[in-house]
């Protein structure tokens, strides 16, 4: 079969690598892809938001299955457009992708269906948000309603900071249209866990847990980024946590979406915080995590195509989803200066070290193929991933492999997975 993947990051490289393992697949295309994806798929220069061109391409090449990896096209309704053209596609429709596309929607959904999350209020204008803050407990969390590349969340320690935050989001529109509405939320503390799941509209199957490191610098200092590294499984995701989440969060979310007339098919990513009062939902995403996919998918035993087709066909209950009894760690190699400003176009050396190395992966994020070779083309450049019998071994392997690759301005965190020492 012919598969088209939409996106261009490390997540899409990990998806493509999983798809490539399937015996059912003859050809993979990726729009627009990157240099690493180009080694296992044919990259086509079509942007992920160019819906008409994607639909035309899928029809012309008689694509059997399209997998949409990224949030923007999902929230924008690419799945609906492909379906309208008679194509098979994996991912939520627009009316379900709103689970990620609007934080106000997801908070209201959780409240209505009693899914545990932080207390909150939604606001449509700055004035009422400012008035509310006068009596709110600090610290407080402000969230732009819409998609903001993971950056639309402000944690404010004082009333002054919070007022400034409201102005930044709703008046200065720092996150654009995403700031037309805003959520003001109770500040919670605890460990964060990412749980990805496959969903077919009614059945949900949970993947192995993971943890991301969102801050730019060691010790969780510095600015929020798209993610500087991950590990899987999370030792903090205990059986007790799992039991709680299965009882109160996972199926409840799927049922709530169905009840609202928005059946969800695709991947639901539960961003959880393990608080003293039990697990709470921090956020939902409507897609695989990046870089969570890079540590979860290489450990999945099932044929990716079987699982994806079961989600589309509503037969996920017949799939026995299984993961290897090992661990994986992903260390992101970024360009110094990310997430603010950084150089691009720097030659990358040493990628050949990953060829034919069982258990080691170099997922490309911001890279580009040029006549001179592969060069950097983004803030997050590569996601070096390694497996190991356990987390400690996987971490040692990943940091060893991170030294195989070099480029000017190469920057990484040195403490990815360090938290496991405390487990
Ligand atoms: P989100 O995009 O909603 O996941 O938020 C980004 C990050 O902000 C999360 O990964 C948390 O570290 C932090 N965060 C979000 N909401 C809260 C909250 N209610 N309390 C504490 N931290 C939060
Ligand atoms: N790693 C967090 C995300 O994909 O949103």
What radius of gyration results from the CA coordinates? 21 Å
Biggest sheet architecture: 6 strands, antiparallel
Q: Helical percent range?
A: 25-40%
Helix-strand category: alpha+beta
Which spans of ≥5 residues are poorly predicted at pLDDT below 50?
none
What fraction strand? 25-35%
Query: What is the CATH class name of the largest domain?
Result: Alpha Beta
| Shape assignment | globular
Strand element count: 23
Q: What's the architecture of the largest domain in CATH terms?
A: 2-Layer Sandwich
Oligomer: single chain
**How many domains?**
4
Kindly, what is the distance between the CA atoms of the first and last residues, rounded to a whole number of angstroms? 44 Å
Number of helices: 12
What integer is the average pLDDT?
96
CATH topology of the largest domain: D-amino Acid Aminotransferase, Chain A, domain 1
